[in-house]
Amino acid sequence: MYVTLKELLGHAEQEGYTVLAPNVFNLESLIAVVEAAEAEQAPVIIAIGESRLKDERLQKYLPVIARQIARETAVPVGINLDHGKSYHELVLAIQKEFSSVMIDASMCPYEENVTRTREIVKIAHELGISVEAEIGHVGMGEDYTENGVKDGLTEPEVAKRFAEETQVDALAVAVGTAHGVYKGTPKLDFERLEEIHKMVNVPLVLHGGSGTGMENLIKASRLGIRKLNINTELLIEAREQVRRELEENPGIDYSILLKHGKDAVVRTLRGYMQALGSSGKAWSKS
Ligand SMILES: [Zn+2]
To answer: Do 186 and 177 touch, CB atoms closer than 8 A?
Structure first.
């Protein structure tokens, strides 16, 4: 069942859980997401990174297959453009009927972030497509320090103003997570998150789920995170499973190897879906 981000996160807000948004890049990763969602009866968001749309063949086929899978499965599935920074790819994703796009102008000054976000909101909403934007800036794990992140954390007041001025459907916030692999231990600013959730009227998104730790994520979910992006950890789990299989059987068929990688992603995702409460939350068409 193909649904919008607005619908997915509205339900999550109402029922108090977090929807997983894993990144996909080929058929196996797509199937892994839907297999996990079906096994857990969990709503899910397929995230397609902007760089995939810069590859000619992936651009042509990945969204089509993703949409077909989303329409045919019984669980609610959205397709989101992840970190749309270029106007071209954002419009392309809208044209290709993604159910939502993330416009990421979080590296720009406030006014420019507002202007660029509003521009995308105007086009997307006209076509019934939801929009996620980011305020504050979620950086990279390699820039992490002993005391967590210093710069770019989201100010609750600014988040409130941004959400009102842009009319976005979901808001990604910076509360101490990072993309990629953390250098050091992740430290989340839960007080800040609680304050943002109190003040901001749209569902909140957390980027950089990988390696953040389940305890931290469960707490973030309780404090209002409704969408969790996850990528790096899935890639690592798949790689390690493939490594073990190869060591055990160096002559293994490549197609079997891919299946083992996919199964590792399914296992990891199911664990997250159970821990963050989306398991069993799939609804059916009314
Ligand atoms: Zn991200």
So the answer is: yes
Per-residue pLDDT of the chain (286 residues; tens, 9 = 90+): 999 999 999 999 999 999 999 999 999 999 999 999 999 999 999 999 999 999 999 999 999 999 999 999 999 999 999 999 999 999 999 999 999 999 999 999 999 999 999 999 999 999 999 999 999 999 998 888 777 777 899 999 999 999 999 999 999 999 999 999 998 889 999 999 999 999 999 999 999 999 999 999 999 999 999 999 999 999 999 999 999 999 999 999 999 999 999 999 999 999 999 999 999 999 997 6
Asked if 82 is an active-site residue, the reply is yes
Domain boundaries, the chain: 5-275
Residue carrying the six token digits 């968001």: 45
Q: Could you tell me the distance, in angstroms and rounded to a whole number, from the CA of residue 207 to the centre of ligand 1?
A: 4
Q: For the chain, how are helix, strand and coil distributed in percent, rounded to 5?
A: 50, 15, 35
Fold designation for 5-275? TIM Barrel (3.20.20)
Which of 82, 104, 169, 189 is an active site residue? 82
pTM, entire model? 0.96
The span from the CA of 131 to the CA of 120, in Å, is: 8
110 CA to centre of ligand 1 in angstroms: 19
